[in-house]
């Protein structure tokens, strides 16, 4: 897992800047070609050596790290402000539902064409998607041959006042001098910390506390991802509805981010009172579902404060947040040993959620910061 994340950190920071400069279409296309290749090579790499497999996993991370920052370059260009959270919800919903489909379909496909054939099948789907992408998508709606004039006018009228295309990203000194940017960075760090704690270490928690092998439970392979897809879309649509109803962007972002952090934090504290594995599973699924509200919070907030540099800044914050994911993935065992129990570690994570909520509500803004 951490080998994937190290590649992800690097490309997340670089990919956003490349998307801002050369357009999201080209960068996403290159990334899709690369992660499809990595998928195809995985069985071969596993047959060679552990080192080769880890190298392919790093390559996979390099390819996939581009996706979210590139998404942030598309959204300010293709969607007016009051539709962006819904667009994020739909995009992330596809990400989560892809996990559901792959978890459920892989055993069936593997029974017919074997392990290597299954990886080749998914790689071919990647290249099929890539051909559709190259033929039908443009980085900016202005360059699209299929968009209607009325839709283009609607998009352009709904853009923020800043010109969407920038020439030079703000310096790191300027970025780190803005508390509004730190609100997004801290939110990204804690979101990634909590997300990987919930997904990577919950199987260990269930095995330790309830003696249940969660990795063999069908619900763990599908239900949390499906719930995140649905709740992320509902959160995005609700956020956009509030903006269209007259609430300020910053108030909406703070409301959604508060739900996205307080919800999982309370859920983690409630785990100590769960008497059965089923009750604990419901609580954990609720935590993951509520965490998806962050998509309509800090995730969209980068596009609010810096639409011209959304890819670069999202990539930077996502890279920093991924380092937190690595720490929580690799270091959770040490934290549990240091704190004395798994529940103490979950309590620490809940405290981090609550503290980040306060920080975000104090310093976040919906106004243009980088123009």
TrEMBL record:
Record membrane topology: Multi-pass membrane protein
Highest taxon of the lineage: Eukaryota
SUPFAM superfamilies (UniProt xref): MFS general substrate transporter
InterPro entries according to UniProt: MFS (IPR011701), MFS_dom (IPR020846), MFS_Na/Anion_cotransporter (IPR050382), MFS_trans_sf (IPR036259)
Keyword Transmembrane helix: yes
Keywords in alphabetical order: Membrane, Transmembrane, Transmembrane helix
Location(s) in or outside the cell: Membrane
GO molecular-function term, one example from the UniProt record: phosphate transmembrane transporter activity
A Pfam family of this chain: MFS_1
Chain ranges of the Major facilitator superfamily (MFS) profile domain: 1-367
Transmembrane annotation, as ranges: 27-46, 52-75, 87-109, 115-135, 181-202, 222-243, 255-274, 280-301, 313-336, 342-363
Example of a GO cellular component annotation carried by this entry: membrane
Coiled coil: none
Protein task: Probable anion transporter.
Similarity annotation: Belongs to the major facilitator superfamily. Sodium/anion cotransporter (TC 2.A.1.14) family.
The protein's name: Major facilitator superfamily (MFS) profile domain-containing protein
